[in-house]
Amino acid sequence: MRIAMIGTGYVGLVSGACFSDFGHEVVCVDKDARKIELLHQGVMPIYEPGLEALVASNVKAGRLSFTTDLAEGVKGADAVFIAVGTPSRRGDGHADLSYVFAAAREIAENLTGPAVIVTKSTVPVGTGDEVERIMREVASGAGAKVVSNPEFLREGAAIEDFKRPDRVVVGTDDEEARDVMRAIYRPLSLNQSAPILFTGRRTSELIKYAANAFLAVKITFINEIADLCEEVGADVQEVARGIGLDNRIGSKFLHAGPGYGGSCFPKDTLALLKTAGDNETPLRIVEATVQVNDARKRAMGRKVIKAMGGDVRGKTIGILGLTFKPNTDDMRDAPSLSIVAALEDAGATVKAYDPEGFEQARPLLPNVEFSESAYAAADGADALVIVTEWDAFRALDLGRIKAMLKTPLLVDLRNIYPPAEAERAGLKLVGVGKPK
Ligand code: UGA
């Protein structure tokens, strides 16, 4: 199959690289000439484990290429994937579809034959109908078919998620388009436990939002249970295990923490609420989730202040992990941003270490001093706070940390250290949802 991938963001670049690794011929297209130039040099515009090697081997094999020229990419393609961004629209929270529609128009203008047009971007219900209208209006003779094929990969585990998905969702009623999509995904050897699920296009579009919203609800639920645990002397990790062993609930996404962030959950929950509002079917559970999660991030700053005795004026706080989750350099809606703001507002000085997030974090956190290592962030600080659970923070020498801190306090917002281990090192540990 010959595939054009429009947009080399997270989803586009990972999907393009993985499709080429399956043996398809893939051309990735992006308007950003600098990005394409970097990709030509083998430099990845994002940090994602394994991506650089995957891209390099497929470029070498001649199956993967990059261009700014959409016409060249689309020429002769069996399928054209739209994987451009759909950020929250400034002001109203609706998904901004201008990039999707602009890409659709440009694709339509350059189609040379029948192709399946696939929206991989996360798009609100009905977007496929509009893309189809654009195809009919601009490229009426080309016989393009418009399919929805949402992506469920997670940053930091993107290649693994793409190659070993729980399911592939394809939204179209057109049999020929289904055949093309079957051929594209055939190398995945999807089976009963990882099926390819064919649905209508609107259903497929909604599946993506419903999935992300459900996961956001699940995280927020356990976060609220964590707050209750602290008050009643229960342990949220044991509660999560106790409920997660019930297959109907499942153990994943029950890790209590500082609130969800990232490029997807915050924007997708908002966009889903807009769709719900437009259709006069309020989704109250999702509304509550958004509110609770927003409030939680800053509340985590207050939690740190409380653990430090209530007054942090003139004190220094070391932060470990700034990105919204490990194995990414992505700072979008990261809880660290609200936590640092709350600490600085209360008069503290913050120094921080993150294995990959510095470049993106620096402009967002102008007053933070960036440390060279986890230990440097602890050195001379009045407390150390783990905000993101990078593997590099899982086996710190707590004795060394204790010796470097002015006050032996570790606030572990990801519950990666067992209290006994911290105690042995002489550190006071404050976790999330732990008995006081
Ligand atoms: C999320 C979904 O998990 C993917 O399936 C989806 O494809 C993607 O959004 C998207 O729509 O593109 P991602 O945002 O990369 O993926 O990261 P997650 O691993 O889902 O984490 C999101 C946030 O939830 C992070 O801030 C993480 O720390 C938090 N989280 C996750 C928790 O606080 N507790 C958990 O148990 C799990």
TrEMBL record:
Catalysed reactions, as listed in the record: UDP-alpha-D-glucose + 2 NAD(+) + H2O = UDP-alpha-D-glucuronate + 2 NADH + 3 H(+)
E.C. numbers: 1.1.1.22
Residue ranges constituting the UDP-glucose/GDP-mannose dehydrogenase C-terminal domain according to the UniProt record: 318-419
Known pathway: Nucleotide-sugar biosynthesis; UDP-alpha-D-glucuronate biosynthesis; UDP-alpha-D-glucuronate from UDP-alpha-D-glucose: step 1/1
Binding-site residues for NAD(+), renumbered to this chain: 30, 35, 86, 122, 155, 267, 332
One MF annotation (Gene Ontology) recorded for this entry: NAD binding
One example of a Gene Ontology biological process annotation: polysaccharide biosynthetic process
InterPro entries, sorted: 6-PGluconate_DH-like_C_sf (IPR008927), NAD(P)-bd_dom_sf (IPR036291), UDP-Glc/GDP-Man (IPR017476), UDP-Glc/GDP-Man_DH_C (IPR014027), UDP-Glc/GDP-Man_DH_C_sf (IPR036220), UDP-Glc/GDP-Man_DH_dimer (IPR014026), UDP-Glc/GDP-Man_DH_N (IPR001732), UDPglc_DH_bac (IPR028357)
Keywords, alphabetical: NAD, Oxidoreductase
Protein name as catalogued: UDP-glucose 6-dehydrogenase
Organism for this UniProt entry: Sphingomonas leidyi
